[in-house]
Design a protein that fits this description.
single chain; 344 residues; mainly alpha
Length: 344
């Protein structure tokens, strides 16, 4: 993920109200299943890609490639839809393309460069399952950022969910050991950056098409990640001759299924499924990631990790259910994405 802005989410929901897009079928539920499995599996792919590709260089290559593929296709699709239904997708008084690039550059930097880049860096040493469980806290940071940035009120049950979630994070972080303190802090910082970026996305200029916006974010985030790779000396350490086949396959998986396929399926699910169904990926993804890490990488699941993970996932479920039930259309709450969109 890539991050779809709050405006793009609102557009998706407007499209969902049209007769042709409102029909929910097997394809929509199948799309959500893809989001569950693929975004959950990207933590495993990142861990494998990190083995012989420096993390910032790897993440930069991922998003520059995916963005370069998506951007022209998204522009073409957007223009065709505008021509077919200009009243649904055109915004005559909307922001200029330069302003859109500026807004998407900020979002792409916070989500993909600092968010995903931080996770990629930490997974050099941190188990993929533990990283996924820590990242599951993103909706908690989103709620806090929404409170600070937009003044959005957090009800009592929401505060309770936040406290429970922070307790779960403390349980997860404690058994990691002194050698894992830095990567744990990096992942938590990445999660905070993702939450802040998700909330700011609703306040920044963005294209009407969610695919165009996502492509912009990927290209901007990829440029920043490449800059980080150059600043840290990673680019001088990239040797194609020493990139393992497994790491290359991991990177290709992150570009294809992890970015392009899952993004498309996510938008389909947003447009055609009930509001309450889509956020479920936020607490299914960590379960998938932990299971795959244990199965393919032999990552050991300690009792503390299981308990902390259950506490975090339960708090996120409580928070999302509470926020979904607080309004008939949470996606149109001022400045607040109803779902913590991500591309991992």
């Amino acid at each position: 993920m890539t991050q779809l802005t709050s405006d793009a989410t609102s557009e998706s929901r407007e499209l969902a109200k049209t007769p042709g897009a409102s029909r929910t079928g097997l394809s929509a539920w199948g799309s959500l299943l893809v989001v569950w499995l693929v975004w959950g599996s990207t933590y495993l792919a990142i861990r494998v890609a990190d083995r012989s590709i420096p993390p910032f260089a790897m993440a930069g290559a991922r998003y520059l490639t995916a963005g370069a593929v998506l951007y022209p296709l998204a522009l073409l699709g957007s223009r065709r839809r505008q021509a077919a239904a200009p009243s649904a997708l055109s915004h005559p008084a909307g922001p200029s393309r330069l302003a859109q690039w500026g807004g998407m550059a900020v979002v792409g930097t916070l989500l993909l460069a600092f968010g995903n880049g931080g996770v990629s860096y930490a997974e050099q040493t941190l188990p993929s399952g533990l990283a996924a469980l820590l990242v599951a806290s993103v909706p908690l940071w989103m709620a806090l950022a929404d409170r600070v940035i937009n003044g959005q009120r957090i009800p009592l049950l929401g505060w309770l969910a936040l406290v429970i979630g922070l307790a779960g994070i403390a349980i997860l972080a404690r058994p990691a050991g002194t050698g894992a303190v830095l990567p744990v802090l990096v992942v938590l910082g990445a999660s905070v950056s993702w939450g802040v970026g998700s909330v700011l996305a609703g306040r920044l200029p963005s294209p009407a098409s969610p695919f165009v916006g996502s492509a912009m974010e990927m290209l901007a985030g990829g440029v920043v990640l490449t800059g980080l790779a150059a600043a840290t000396g990673e680019l001088t350490r990239v040797d194609p001759a020493h990139v393992s086949e497994q790491s290359l396959l991991g990177l290709l998986y992150l570009i294809g299924p992890g970015s392009l396929l899952a993004l498309t399926c996510y938008v389909v699910a947003l447009r055609r499924l009930p509001t309450a169904a889509v956020p479920t990926y936020a607490y299914v993804n960590p379960v998938v990631a932990v299971s795959l890490g244990a199965l393919f990488l032999g990552e050991r699941l300690t009792p503390a990790t299981l308990v902390g993970g259950v506490v975090v996932v339960a708090s996120v479920a409580m928070l999302l259910i509470n926020r979904t039930g607080a309004t008939a259309d949470p996606g149109e709450t001022a400045g607040t994405p109803a779902v913590p969109h991500r591309d991992r």
